[in-house]
Specification:
Layout (H helix, E strand, L loop, with lengths): L1 E5 L4 E6 L8 E6 L17 E4 L3 H11 L10 E2 L4 E6 L9 E6 L14
């Protein structure tokens, strides 16, 4: 569906969907850093993501319930069109949960650099 790069995590991303109404699956291709070493370099399912209207509001609610549960003190830029934050797996039954807010029109004209 579209691809992008997340500078904060040094990773290329590919989002793919069955059709325009389905939920996308995100493939992460880390170039370096903590994501490259995820699962001892073997990869795997990294996290579950939820689209929300306001990432900062979600952070405030979550932190109000359990201080220190969010990975970032404020949302970080994902691809050019989203901001994200994560709930720490240690505070959420071992599951890394991402909250995603769309902040600009999704650029689907960015060709997938990994396609043949």
């Amino acid at each position: 569906d579209y691809a992008g790069f997340v500078d904060a995590y040094h990773a290329d991303l590919i989002f793919t969907k069955k059709d325009k109404n389905s939920t996308p699956i995100e493939f992460i291709i880390p170039r370096e850093g903590v994501l490259k070493d995820f699962n001892h370099g073997k990869g795997g399912i990294a996290h579950i993501a939820f689209e929300v209207d306001d990432v900062e509001k979600v952070r405030q609610i979550m932190e109000g319930q359990q201080e220190g549960c969010m990975l970032e003190k404020k949302a970080v830029q994902g691809t050019d069109d989203i901001v994200v934050n994560f709930r720490r797996p240690s505070t959420d039954a071992g599951i890394l949960v991402e909250y995603v807010q769309t902040v600009a029109p999704i650029n689907r004209s960015n060709p997938n650099p990994f396609q043949n």
